Amino acid sequence: MAILTDRQRAVLGLVVKQYIESAQPVGSKTVVDQYGLGISSATIRNEMASLEEEGYLTHPHTSAGRVPTEVGYRFFVENIIGEARLPPEEELMIRHQFHQSALDLDQWARLAAAVLARVASVAALVTTPHSLQCRYKRLQLISIHGATVLLVLVLQEGVVAQRMLALAQPETDETLTRVTNQFNDQWGGLTSEQIATRPATLDALESEIRRLVIELMEETHQEAEFVVYRHGLSAMLEAPEFAETKAGRQVVRVLEEQQLWSEISREVMGAGSVHVIIGGEGRWEDLSDCSVVLSRYGWSGQMTGLLGVLGPMRMRYGRAISAVRYVSDVLSEMVRSLYIGDESVMDVSARD
Question: Does residue 38 sit in helix, strand or coil?
Answer without folding.
Answer: coil
